[in-house]
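Hi F.,

I've been meaning to write this up properly since the lab meeting, where we talked about keeping a consistent format for the predictions we share between groups. The idea is simple: the sequence comes first, exactly as it goes in, then the C-alpha cells exactly as they come out, then a line or two of notes. No screenshots and no reformatting. I'm using this chain as the first example so we have something concrete to point to.
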Amino acid sequence: MSQNIYDDPEFFAGYATLDRSVKGLDGAPEWPTIQAMLPSLQGKNILDLGCGYGWFCRYARDNQAASVMGLDISQKMLTQAHSMTQGNGIVYQREDIETLTLPPNSFDLVYSSLALHYLHDIERLFVTIY
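Output, unedited:
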C-alpha cells in the first residue's frame, strides 16, 4: 500500500489545525486560481483523488454535479469527510490511487489536490485517468 501518514494520530491531529483543514477550500491559497480554471460542474460526473475531508466533493455536489466520488487511502480522512458531509450525492471510498482502476469514460472531471506528490508511479495513474 502507498504512503499513508494521515492515519498516524499525531500527524492527523496536526493536519487538523491547518487553515485548509479548518476553513476548507477558502483556507487553501491556491483555491481562487483553481476555481477560476474549473469548467461548469453542472451535470458532470466528478472524481476527487485524495479527497481528504471532502471539501471539493461537497463543492462539486453543491455546484450541481451529477455524481461525486471521493477517494482517499486514509480511513481517518474518510471518517472526517463523512462526519462533515450532510445529505446525499457523494460517495466516499477508501482506495490507493497508486493502483486505481476505472471503467472507461466513467468521469467527466478528475480533481486532485495534495495527493499526487505521494505517488511512485504517477504515469500509471495518468494513463488510468486518460
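Notes:
Helices lie at 9-15, 19-22, 31-37, 55-62, 75-84, 122-129.
The longest helix spans residues 75-84.

If this format works for you, I'll send the rest the same way.

G.
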